[in-house]
Amino acid sequence: NADDSLLLARLSPSLPTPADADRSARALACLVYTSGSSGEPKGVRITHRNIAAMSDAFGRTQGINAGSRVAQMVSPAFDVALSDIFCAWSRGACLCLLDPADSLPGKAMVSGLTRLGVTHWNLPPSLLAECPGAPWPELETIAVGGEPPAHDVLARWYPARVISAYGLTEATVASTAEAFVLGQKPEIGTPLPGTRVAIVDDAGQPVPIGVAGQMAITGPQVADGYHRRPALTTARFVPEPDGAVLRTGDRARWRADGRIEFLGRLDRQLKFHGYRIEPGEIEAAARGHAGIDQAFVTVRPHGTGDRL
């Protein structure tokens, strides 16, 4: 009824023109903030075009369709939520929200996902490692990303299809992916449809197969720079006729079999439980405390997991 309805948009009295559609596609859809090495988070300008391109490419890669049931487990402030929400909605799938009681990794989460009949599940490998059991009957695809996955963790969920994905907020969540194969070391795979990846040297020139360099990403998923940070945008986004080339700051190399092998960062940035963290941001906050003169942040093993 009217009291329960939600107005999503008012219809325009006139049909849009191609020029209108182009302006709308390049309009800002959202800002997603990431860690900043100076202590100031960076707002990534993600456009409607970016989200549409990601939803199409990554949705197809995961095999999401109108009969799918996609789990949405993370806060909308986290960029992975864009993948869960729009890969589902753009392909007519059902978006399944977990109850708060089922949101922590473990038996409760698996029970909640089973109860909802989830077919597609997206999460960091470290959280997947904390979930016991085996695939439930409806589960079709698990997508993992945000940190390097371990073969043994992914193998536990066979015969469900497991996809190892790679991406940054600046390239709208996902840029490369591959299906996990038993007995084969997981890598970050090959570029998604519509995305181009180059491995380049310090001068921006492509390097030969097997040689390490910086990953550079081009395509409609590359964001529109940083919000009100022109110098930083210039340093990371190199303009080209139909967008920009994103300098990722990640080291990688092409393998002879055509897959990309991730080799870590060129700077101090960390991937921790699926989150991208700038140690300098935490250090700056710590030095702001009256009782702290200097600070250094790193990751150390602790029990069954790591701690900052």
Describe this structure in words.
- There is one protein chain.
- The protein contains eight helices and 18 strands.
- It has 308 residues and is an alpha+beta fold.
- Helix 2 (48-62) packs across helix 3 (80-89).
List keywords for this structure.
308 residues, alpha+beta, 28% strand
Shape: globular
Give the end-to-end Cα distance, rounded to a whole number of Å.
50 Å
Radius of gyration: 20 Å
The main pleated sheet reads as: 5 strands, mixed
User: Taking all residues together, what is the mean pLDDT?
Assistant: 89
Strand content: 25-35%
Q: Helix proportion of residues, in percent?
A: 10-25%
Name the structural class: alpha+beta
Pick out the low-confidence regions: none
For the secondary structure, the number of strands is 18
H and E order? HEEHEHEHEHEHEEEEEHEEEEEHEE
> In what order do the strands lie side by side in the largest sheet?
5-6-7-8-9
The number of distinct helices, counting runs of at least 4 residues, comes to 8
Summarize the structure.
The protein is an alpha+beta fold. The chain has helices at residues 18-25, 48-62, 80-89, 107-116, 125-128, 151-155, 230-236, 279-287, and strands spanning 28-34, 42-47, 69-72, 94-97, 120-123, 141-144, 161-166, 176-179, 190-191, 196-200, 213-218, 237-240, 243-254, 260-265, 270-272, 275-277, 300-302, 305-307.
